Amino acid sequence: MAAVSPIEAGEAPVAVTEHTALLAGTKPSRTPLPVKQLTIIMLIQISEPLASQSIYPYINQLVGELDITGGDVKKVGYYAGMVSIRPTCLSLILNAQPPTQEALFFLTEAISALQWSRASDRVGRKPILLIGSFGTALSIFAFGLSKTFLTLVIRQVNPISDYLILSAVGSRCLCGLLNGNIGVMKSALGDMTDTTNRAEAFVFLPIVWAAGASIGPLIGGSLARPHDRFPNSEFFALKFWLHYPYFLPCLATGSFALFAWFIVLLFFKETVPWKTEKPESALSSASSTFSSVPVDRSEPQQAVGPLSLRQLMTFPVLVSVSNYVCLGFFTVTYAALIPLFCTMPITLGGLGLDPPKIGILLSIYGLATGSFNLLFFARIVRRLGEKKTFQLAMSMPAAIFVMFPVISLIARATSAGEEHRLWWGIYVLLGCVGMLGAVMDLAFGAIFMFVTACAPKSSRGTVNGLAQTTVSISRALGPALVTSLFSFSLQMELLGGYFVYLVFLLLSCGAMILAARLPEEVWDDIE
User: Fold this and answer.
1) Which residues of 29-42 are buried (b: 16+ CB within 10 A; e: fewer)?
2) What phi and psi, each to the nearest 5 degrees, are found at residue 517?
3) Domain of life of the organism in this record (predicted)?
4) Calpha distance 297→277 (Å, rounded)
5) In degrees, to the nearest 5, what angle opens at C-alpha 14 toward C-alphas 386 and 385?
6) How many angstroms separate the CA atoms of 27 and 196, rounded?
7) Which tens digits make up the pLDDT trace of 270-312?
8) Other CB atoms closer than 10 Å to residue 121's CB: what's the count?
9) How far is the C-alpha of 219 from the C-alpha of 197, rounded, in Å?
């Protein structure tokens, strides 16, 4: 029986575009998620924000007590950023310039992330995950024992120095240098899933991170300075807690990271697909990820190693990684700006909140972000698609940077104590900021799909490592830039101290333009 065309059958013709598949295929059945393996990956994932985010409620207070600011509150923003998110590179500390400590984790991670991820393509994901989890625990323990700003840096770079130098910056760098988990976790998820269930697996990454980001600040705000928080306790009256007032939250989060290390050691199964593909097939996989032209798999494939970085520099890889870099930049600047904005006195453009209140606020933000992703991410992606979901999320930073000066102006209007009712408006606006941040986090699940899809299977770790390296650089520069520009705007009284928000508003508009360069759809994996 001859085939009948849609026109002959009376059906409306299908519009054909450059993204239309040449051969129609039946929709594959959904592969069940590997629940046990996925749970272990999520355990590693949550241990990292527990440690990194727990320092936010007290980081500005800690920096103010160190030897670096000379008692000048306006200088806290310069240095708080270097420590607060993650450590990065020792050269920034040896430099007399005022980059911030949040930068430290990410610069050292940028140095090491690609190498860890490339190693995972060769030796497997499990050994790298073990090293990363141990590095997280070691660095946060060292952070809690730091007594000078310089030590906060060095502890992040050299594990030996943890026993010799007690400094805040060093501990952040050690974490970045030893932590290859982020990129390797995404590679492992790509290994253990396929196109039928990958979206459901990747959605858990930002949700679990948000859960850790919710619990972490609560731990930090509740357990910091235990001799003050629990004055009737004889245990916390010991000289140790007076000398190391911020070690208790570090002990709690570091212990959880060690627990995750043991679980990986005992129960995690290797996911690397040791059978690799021939170079021609791998290259066609990278370049045709966003193309619908089928790849001929009739020829036998030879086992080869991962592709070189030069071979991986295709348009799909570059555009996916670039958008991930922008997303990482804005999420980390947002995370760095919130506690600084809340800590600063009202007269200096902040809200003048204390660490416990900041911890509660950040925990609420984290809970809202996780809940929103869990409830709405899959629905939004099904309705809008990955690209439009990402574009929607990347429009949020612009709105966020408009909200900050509005809240500050209202707070200044209430500083005389005459308009207390306006504080309810401030809390409502802070809630709006949190919801905008929750929508922005939708972008992670979407961009992870693009990054994973553009990677040949034999080089999935390398592509994820490349993405993690570049995003780490942006995350290192972002907090340093936003917190330093915050302080600079105050000191120079640029636009009344609000110049920082104008700069980041313009940058966020550029990110929206870049998001439009993504393809309309994420295509299936090609062997």
Assistant:
1) eeeebbeebbebbb
2) -80, -10
3) Eukaryota
4) 10
5) 5
6) 9
7) 888 654 444 444 444 444 444 444 444 333 344 455 667 777 7
8) 26
9) 34
Q: What is the pLDDT of residues 218-243, one digit of tens each?
A: 898 889 889 888 888 889 988 899 88
For tokens 């998110």, the residue is: 85
Do residues 441 and 332 touch, judged by C-beta distance below 8 A?
Answer: no
pTM, 2 dp: 0.67
- Tens of pLDDT, residue by residue over 118-173, are 888 888 889 989 988 888 888 888 888 876 655 554 444 433 333 333 355 556 66
* Helix pair angle (396-414, 355-394), 10° resolution: 150
DSSP string, 370-396: HHHHHHHHHHHHHHHHHHHHHHHHHTH
Among the residues of 415-517, which ranges form H helices? 422-440, 442-453, 460-492, 499-515
The CATH superfamily label for domain 35-271+309-515 reads: MFS general substrate transporter like domains (1.20.1250.20)
Q: Which of 100, 99, 103, 175 is nearest to 142 (CA)?
A: 175
- Closest Cα to residue 57, out of 222, 208, 207, 176? 222
Distance CA 82, CA 59 (A): 10
Instruction: Return d(Cα 373, Cα 448) in angstroms, integer.
Output: 14
Distance of CA 134 to CAs 45, 124, 129, 187, 301, Å? 13, 17, 9, 19, 38
CB 127 within 8 A of CB 461: no
Residue 287, Cβ density class (10 Å: 0-12 exposed, 13-18 middle, ≥19 buried):
middle
How many other CB atoms are there within 10 angstroms of residue 118's CB atom? Answer: 22
